[in-house]
């Protein structure tokens, strides 16, 4: 089964509005066709409206880095998935390890967010991944299986087919220490097997799984050559236009 690759840059809490606008201007006419690859930038909510305005008519897609699980209400400081959907943003990242660690997000929150985002017609990019301690204890598979099972609870097979899952070992994020391509493939395979166990083979064949953690222009092609790796979620190497565009060279 061939799945369309998806390369997503995750800017985290970097860039001002003017820096984001300059980036979009620099890349927007050099993005490969979205028939071949989904090319996405995940940016802080404040940057999305001006970026969205500038990317109209191009193949650059956009993602929020987070959203709340309610569409409206007295939730000071939160961003509504309905507001993100109304802008025409295609994806929302949920469950990133930084959200789990610094903002105490639980598996249950992530499941509620997945449901709210899907209900608004936006695609969640659901993150999972283990700490160094869990990795060294040889418990990666059971950890990731638990996170995915909880995040997808009560979703329908069709909803799961259409979402994106990102496997990011925490010990490889921003450390320059990437999981090698075989290790990434193996754990993305665990994610796929978990989806198969819960939803069957048609769904696990369709769901797209990214690897994240120190992906760079120099190593992206090797990850993308692996059976279970359908894309990458990239932090540091997606911050500069030239490096971001170089991540897409593997499709040429
Ligand atoms: O969401 C992206 C990841 O946290 C990876 O970040 P990194 O590419 O800087 O290691």
Automatic annotation (TrEMBL):
Pathway: Carbohydrate biosynthesis; gluconeogenesis; Carbohydrate degradation; glycolysis; D-glyceraldehyde 3-phosphate from glycerone phosphate: step 1/1. InterPro entries: Aldolase_TIM, TIM_sf, TrioseP_Isoase_bac/euk, Triosephosphate_isomerase, Triosephosphate_isomerase_AS. It is found in: Cytoplasm. PROSITE patterns: TIM_1, TIM_2. Substrate binds at residues 10-12, 174, 214, 235-236. Keywords: Cytoplasm, Gluconeogenesis, Glycolysis, Isomerase. Pfam families: TIM. Its EC number is 5.3.1.1. The active site is at residues 96, 168. GO terms for molecular function: triose-phosphate isomerase activity. It catalyses: D-glyceraldehyde 3-phosphate = dihydroxyacetone phosphate. One of its GO terms (biological process) is gluconeogenesis. Gene3D superfamilies: Aldolase class I. It comes from the Bacteria. GO terms for cellular component: cytosol. Homodimer. HAMAP family: TIM_B. Belongs to the triosephosphate isomerase family. Involved in the gluconeogenesis. Catalyzes stereospecifically the conversion of dihydroxyacetone phosphate (DHAP) to D-glyceraldehyde-3-phosphate (G3P). This is Triosephosphate isomerase.
